[in-house]
Amino acid sequence: MKKIFQNLIIVNFVFLIISSSSLANEKIRVGLLLPLSGENREIGQSVLKAVKMAVNKINDPRIQIYPKNNFDDPKKTYEAAKELYEDGIKVFIGPIFEKNSNNLAKLSDATFLSLTNKLNKKNNNIIASGVNALSQFEAIKKFKNENGLKKTICLIPERNFRSEIETAISKSDIKMKIYYYNKEPTKLTKRIEKITRYSTRKQNLEDEIKRVENSDDPNKEKLLEKLNKRDTLGNINFDSVVISGFDETLKSITTSLMYTDVTPKKTYFITLNQWFDTTLLDEMSSQNLYFPSINKKNYDKFKKDYSKVYKDQPNQISLIGYDLVGLVYHLSKINNFQINSRMFDQKNLFRGKTGVFEIENKRIKHVLNFYKVENNKFKKIF
């Protein structure tokens, strides 16, 4: 019964989108591969709703969206895509997760706009459309250049998304020294202490206090008063640090840096896209933290519109789905409404809710904005 109900939702959605399509000669037919059941169904349903919003916003009867439940499974993703492909559909939005793209190379003349942000391009017909690490590091590179930062280090987790960060640093040609860290709290603290030369700087202070105490300097008391207010003595070997981490790991690293007397007052603290995580606003160690991101004003407007229509909050990924509808429509117009993979070969720009998309050679990059956590608010830098 539940499956029948889900199918009815999909059929009704298709009907709403294409009911007036007969009024136009040219059709923009797009497949939509989403997990509409199972563990990630809420994400899939949120993207489905966002896509419907985008279609309504475009308000052109030529655009037709055909949703299919891929059950968050590689085999069923291929089966759903093949069914639509055999019906003549050659451009797809989805799947969301990289794992479900494994078999799609078999449909070689179809193009899949995956919502993943993974950079590892396995198949030429799959385009990663998420806010990837390369887009973020290119924004960081711009920020570094504008602020004259010459000695940047980057902290990368030993596991998880290590290869993604390494690839992005290499492709963006950004100059920085890399250090790896273990997220386990004790190991993380020791790693930060070593990177910042904390024990040496601590010892330098103790030695200087003893030297002044044993000196005949007439200003001894004033010097000692200043020294006793310090935690360390000596320079660190970097002017900025890029922290590849999120949530509690990010907060643990910024706290550890401040514990070792490295503060954002003297050193730039930079991190990756945080999707405007509001918990950062109340965190003392996160004040003056910089990060690249999508356009906040547009993101807030999208969430407001989504909430107004559906009485719910959208998943972050759904904004990408919303923009991909506009992107396909934009490129199809440029391509004289011929829907094929060549639309994604030539260099083009598209301004969506997330910001500016750069499309070339079946690759998508996001031109991101830059923000700072300041006085418990997100402040736009560029």
Written as H for each helix and E for each strand, in order along the chain, the element string is HEHEHEEEHEHEHHHEHEEHHEEEEE
How does the overall form come out from the CA principal axes?
elongated
CATH architectural label of the largest domain: 3-Layer(aba) Sandwich
* Alpha carbon gap, first and last residue: 51 Å
Question: Helix content range of the residues, please?
Answer: 40-55%
Mean pLDDT: 92
Portion in beta strands = 15-25%
From the alpha carbons, calculate the radius of gyration and give it in angstroms: 25 Å
Task: Write the CATH fold name of the largest domain.
Answer: Rossmann fold
What structural class should be given to the helix and strand makeup? alpha/beta
Major β-sheet, in short?
Answer: 7 strands, mixed
Trace the largest sheet across and list its strands: 7-6-8-9-10-14-15
Poorly predicted ranges: 1-6, 15-24
CATH class (first level) name of the largest domain? Alpha Beta
Would you identify the CATH H-level superfamily of the largest domain? Response regulator
Q: Please work out how many helical segments DSSP would assign.
A: 11
Q: How many separate structural domains?
A: 2
Let me know the number of strands.
15
